[in-house]
Amino acid sequence: MKSRILVIKAAEDSALQYMNFMNVIFAAQKQSVLIDACVLDSDSGLLQQACDITGGIYLKVPHLPSLLQYLLWVFLPDQEQRSQLVLPPPVHVDYRAACFCHRNLIEIGYVCSVCLSIFCNFSPICSTCETAFKISLPPVMKAKKKKLKLSV
């Protein structure tokens, strides 16, 4: 029997748990553990990525009174049994990251090398882990003195 994780999401994502959850995703991927997500309210890009990376199923329940049916039909079967079922189609996963400062999706940003927080604007101090970054400027070159040629 292979290990699996089922995340049932009934509240908004918490930015404070982002790093912890990213560690869970990468550990699950390394250990070949599926992460499934059953979403009851608003979508979660992070959970979509977790399911896609680990080979799990992401499902936003369209009709809450049918929750038990979805849990039994989609999430109870193991990976082998799922291949024999007609499951909901996979969702399109947007791999753009959300900046920690405004929660906007960005394609290019700044990443803290300590905590991996992503920002849309540069800041010399990470607002998540408060690491101060040393900004290395290019070395200042001394101007070469021009030799004066004497005309004779």
UniProtKB/TrEMBL annotation:
Subcellular location: Nucleus
Single GO MF annotation: zinc ion binding
GO biological process: nucleotide-excision repair; regulation of DNA-templated transcription
GO cellular component: transcription factor TFIIH core complex; transcription factor TFIIH holo complex
Pfam families: Tfb4 (PF03850)
Gene3D superfamilies named among the record's database cross-references: von Willebrand factor, type A domain
Record's keyword annotation contains DNA damage: yes
Keyword Zinc: yes
Keywords tagged on the record: DNA damage, DNA repair, Metal-binding, Nucleus, Transcription, Transcription regulation, Zinc, Zinc-finger
Protein purpose: Component of the general transcription and DNA repair factor IIH (TFIIH) core complex, which is involved in general and transcription-coupled nucleotide excision repair (NER) of damaged DNA and, when complexed to CAK, in RNA transcription by RNA polymerase II. In NER, TFIIH acts by opening DNA around the lesion to allow the excision of the damaged oligonucleotide and its replacement by a new DNA fragment. In transcription, TFIIH has an essential role in transcription initiation.
Record-linked PANTHER family: GENERAL TRANSCRIPTION FACTOR IIH SUBUNIT 3, TRANSCRIPTION INITIATION FACTOR IIH TFIIH , POLYPEPTIDE 3-RELATED
Family: Belongs to the TFB4 family.
Assembly information from the UniProt record: Part of a TFIID-containing RNA polymerase II pre-initiation complex that is composed of TBP and at least GTF2A1, GTF2A2, GTF2E1, GTF2E2, GTF2F1, GTF2H2, GTF2H3, GTF2H4, GTF2H5, GTF2B, TCEA1, ERCC2, ERCC3, TAF1, TAF2, TAF3, TAF4, TAF5, TAF6, TAF7, TAF8, TAF9, TAF10, TAF11, TAF12 and TAF13. Component of the 7-subunit TFIIH core complex composed of XPB/ERCC3, XPD/ERCC2, GTF2H1, GTF2H2, GTF2H3, GTF2H4 and GTF2H5, which is active in NER.
Protein name per its UniProtKB record: General transcription factor IIH subunit 3
Originating species: Callipepla squamata
